[in-house]
Amino acid sequence: MLFNNRVIHLSLASIFLFAHDSTAQQQCPRGAFVETGKKCPCLSVDTGCKIVDTDSAFDDVRGMSCGKLEVTTDSNGDYPNIEVEYSWEMCNKNSFDIKLKQDFAKFFDWTKRKGSKDENINNPRFPLGGKTLEAGACLNQSQVVTLDTANRYTIATQLEGFVVKESGGIVNPQNSYCYAFSNESVSFKKGKCNVTTDAACMVEGTTTSCQDFIDQARVAGRCADFNASFTWKACNYQPYDMKIFSDASNVKIATKNNGLTINVPIANVQGPIGSGECEKFGPKTKIINTCSDDEKLFYSINLQGSKQNEKFWHECQDFTFKKLQRFREPILKAPSKAPSVPSKGKGKGNGRNTLSKRKRRATRRNL
């Protein structure tokens, strides 16, 4: 069966813009580009890492995010190597093409080793400068790489470019600079014990998750405020009490807007956590809207600890990081006119229709 690649790209772009992180400064344009000097609206970038190693030891986590893998050392004290798939995507929902800037549009990764970031920024895995990101389309690619799980990695997709005129030239770079960025931490869990963390967001007073409520609002084509109730917990399933490194075991909500991240600390896991017990936090209520032009919202919990009186805090660790996928524009357009307000009387019609009926009855009596 043959497929039209162009059509597939457009479909992916429309789905992607509602389901992934993005950078935007204003509503999507409905006409031609206007030189405002602001960043290009309606750009999206995404970055991912999933486990693809075929070794049977990874059967339970194959296809999952790299952060789901927990590793332990072998008899020599070494952590295993593992095959993962890096992926990136850039989407442009604007009405104009974007020329990606040489040396500044790229997908790259780095480790915590000193100098690694600068080295890999200058030698990215995927240099994308010089390519054209067409209006309504996406660029994407993936690559299988082998990682040493003893290290911690960060992967990033960076989009920089300029608006392309219909004639093919570049709009004045000072007024048409486009930028979007996405990064993800790839940190393998290094644990010798069974501890877990979890975070949840529910619509206050209901059993509906915040994400389900947002998704329903998106399909219905409406933006609405609601009370989001956040809860977190850290649990210890070891046969002994767990001493907690409180400074590194934190609970928080974070927002990111225009590149600025604001962390709101909620609490620190104090411990010790008894065997088979959990330390719980919340509910923390926050009013949020199902729509968001720029702001991204995250909530997380991190746990580090060890057996009582032991010094190695990395022995037991777990973390949960979640984000609410809000949308900029409803899938369905909102009504052009505000809905009518029902009459306070017993009739089903509005006040204007009721008055009209009375006039008709009076007219009949006069006749």
From TrEMBL:
Residue spans of biased composition, Basic residues class: 345-367
Protein name (Swiss-Prot/TrEMBL): Uncharacterized protein
Keywords for this protein: Signal
Ranges for region Disordered: 332-367
Signal peptide: 1-24
Lineage top rank: taxon: Eukaryota
